[in-house]
Amino acid sequence: MTDRRQNEAPGIAVIVNPVKMPVTQLREIVAPAARAAGFAEPLWLETTEDDAGQGMAAEALAAGVELVLAAGGDGTIRAVVEGLRGSEVRLGLIPGGTGNLLARNLDLPLSSMADAVAIALGGASRAIDVGFVELIRDGGSRSEHSFAVMAGLGIDAEVMASTNSSLKKSIGWLAYVEAGARALPKAKPFPVDYQLIGRHRHTVHVSTVLVGNCGRLQGGIELFPDAAIDDGELDVAILQPRGLFGWLKVWRRVHWENSALKRTAIGRRILRLSPESKRSRETISYLRGSGIALRLDRPRLIELDGDDLGEVVGARFSADPSSLRIAVRPEAAEAAHPPIASGD
């Protein structure tokens, strides 16, 4: 295989969040792996407080790289995805955050940087969808953003915004549970107008609306059990619990029914026959389509892949099909791609 070190372009860019990742250790892993694959010294780009990764992704594209390694948490990954969406450059994930949700949904290594780098350099990849949203602010201003996993309005966004960052460092994703326990007693339903593309408009009172590109959360919880990351559609969950007992039904639905029973034929039969299962469906309604428009009664918080995007009065979501190529395990690739690793 041709030695890429003869080329002027670096071939690989590493976009790293220095707050989340041990940069020196990561360099010690990436450098020899890149040399073994025949690449020149990677282009190293660190995120900043003012730029979570979008600008670094643009710099990597301008440098002509063929592979970007994104090292950090869900916010860093989302920013790099936003910058690479629609390009032919492959993305490799080096997870280093609390949720690491995109890596979880793609069954990528969560705790071994060396294993994650090996997969990124291995050559196997697949095209995935990216969520796209136009946010409408109070006063009419609009902005466009991307997300890899899911977006949330209502109590979901309030929990993300109020989660203690120090607690996240010490107990991980359980910090979200603590924030949820504080938010639930104060949560009140609010009206939302929604309209799937090509369908009629509806008005409902909700506690949360979630829009997902894929559906697996921490702890093996399947929020969207039928979601696929490459189907060209978004999955929507409308949560309408009534009081604390209603939230217990929500937990039963996502933790027991979605994450356990729906995985087996006998479990699905139990769900069809169970009166309790039918009652739990009253708390969550699932929708699916290529896009959905939401209109709110007043400004409310929204989050994208855990990032607080502030308050909006409306949002227009759509799926951007097959708009990102991502490095995966060989068995997960939809087609065989030439491996990057060089031979003799």
In short:
The protein has 344 residues and is α+β, with helices and mostly antiparallel strands. The chain folds into 2 domains: 4-124 and 328-332, 3-Layer(aba) Sandwich (Rossmann fold); 131-322, Tumour Suppressor Smad4 (Sandwich), CATH 2.60.200. The protein has 11 helices and 14 strands.
Give the SSE map.
Blueprint lengths: L11 E5 L6 H14 L6 E4 L7 H9 L4 E6 L1 H11 L5 E6 L5 H5 L7 H8 L4 E12 L5 E6 L2 E5 H8 L2 H7 L2 H10 L6 E7 L5 E5 L1 E5 L21 E6 L3 H16 L6 H9 L1 H6 L3 E6 L1 E14 L2 E21 L17
Parallel strand pairs: 1-2, 1-3, 3-4, 4-14
Antiparallel strand pairs: 5-6, 5-14, 7-10, 7-13, 8-9, 8-13, 10-11, 11-12, 13-14
Helix pairs in contact: 1-5, 2-3, 6-8
Secondary-structure-derived class: alpha+beta
Question: Please, what is the average pLDDT?
Answer: 85
Task: State the domain count.
Answer: 2
Strand composition percent: 25-35%
Number of separate helices: 11
What do we call the CATH topology of the largest domain? Answer: Tumour Suppressor Smad4
Would you state the CATH class of the largest domain? Mainly Beta
Q: Compute the separation of the termini in Å.
A: 7 Å
Q: What are the secondary-structure elements, in order, as H or E? A: EHEHEHEHHEEEHHHEEEEHHHEEE
Domain DAGKc: 7-137
GO molecular function: ATP binding; kinase activity
Cofactor: Mg(2+)
Family: Belongs to the diacylglycerol/lipid kinase family.
